[in-house]
Amino acid sequence: xxRILFIEPFFAxxxxxxxxxxxxxxxxxxxxxxxxxLPGKKWHWRARTSALYFxxxxxxxxxxxxxxxxSVLNMAELIALRPDLMxxxxxxxxxxxxxxxxxxxxxxxxxxxxxxxxISCMVADNIFFNTLFNLTxxxxxxxxxxxxxxxxxxxxLPEMIRPKCKVLxxxxxxxxxxxxSEVRKTDDTAGLHIVWPHRWEHDKGxxxxxxxxxxxxxxxxxFRLSILGEQFQQIPLVFDEKKLQYxxxxxxQVLDWGWVNRDRYVDLLSSAHVVVSTSEHEFYGVSMIxxxxxxxxxxxxxxxxxxxxxxxxxxxxxxxxxxxxxxYFCKNPNASRNLSVNxxxxxxxxxxxxxxxxxxxxxxxxxxxxx
Length: 371
Known about the structure:
The chain is α/β, with parallel strands linked by helices. Helices cover 41% and strands 16% of the residues.
C-alpha cells in the first residue's frame, strides 16, 4: 500500500510540473505513492472547496506516512474532515502566497484565500517555499493581513509558523534541444531573437514589455520576437493590438505569438538570444530559469524573486535600462551568447536529495494507518 499521498487541487502549470518531476525522478518502489488531483482550472473554487472533495475520495483504509500538498489545499479543513490523516507528516508546498498576490484593487482581494494558507500552515508539520522571497513575504505580511479583520485578531502567528518553514527550490528538469551550433550561428546572423514567455495576464507586465519593444522600434533596432505563454479566457486587449502592429513593422519580425507545444517551446528557447521579464509578480520564475538553462541570456527586473536567483548582470532597475541593454544586443547578437549564467542549483539533479529528505525517504517514519 502507498505510504506517500500527493494531493494537488490545481493540477496544471508548475503545480503539475513539480509532481511530474518528483514522480518520474524518484524511485518510489519501496515506499509506494498515490496521487490525487483535480483539473487545473477554476482556481478560486479549488481553493475554496477541494478539501471536502479530497476528504471524500481519500481511501479510508491506508498506511500513509506522508501527505504532500500545495498551498491551494486548505489542509486544516482536510484534517478536520479526515482526522485519521492527522498522524501523517503533513507537508505544505508554496508555489505562491495569497498575502501579496497582486490584485488590481485592494478591495478585490478575497480574505479567505490568504486565511486558508495561514491556517494550513498551523496544521502542517513542514512548510516549503520555492524561494526565500516567497517565504519572507508571506511571514512578514501576516500581521498587516489580519488588520483587515475588525477585531479579535490572532497574535504571534509568524513566530509559531516560522520554525516549520524552509526554502526548497522548484526543480527544473528541462532537457536541451538538439539544435546544432550551426543553427545557432544562422540565428545569430538573422538578428537578435527576443522571447517573452509568460502568462498573458496583467501581473506579468505585458504593457511594460510592449512599451520597451515600441521604444526599440522607434530607435530603429531590428530584431525577431516570440511572445509565448499560457492564455486564459480574458486576454488583455494589448496582445491583439501589438500583434497586428508588429507584423506590419519592418523592424520587428514576429516568429511565434501564443501557446506552443513543449517541443517547439524548447527549440525556441534553445535558439533564442534573450529572454525578458517585466513581471509585477513573481515568486519563482520557472520560464525564465528554463530559458536561461537552455542558453538564453535573462533580463529581469531588480525586484521580487529575481535578485535571489539571477546575478546582478541580469537585472535592470528601470525600463530605460532594459531598452538600452536590448538595443546593445540588437547591434551585437553574439554578445548575449558570451554572457553565461549558471543556474545548476535549480536543476532536478541538484535538488533531488533535498526532496527525498523532505519526503522522509531517507529515514524511518511512523506510520499513519487507518483500518
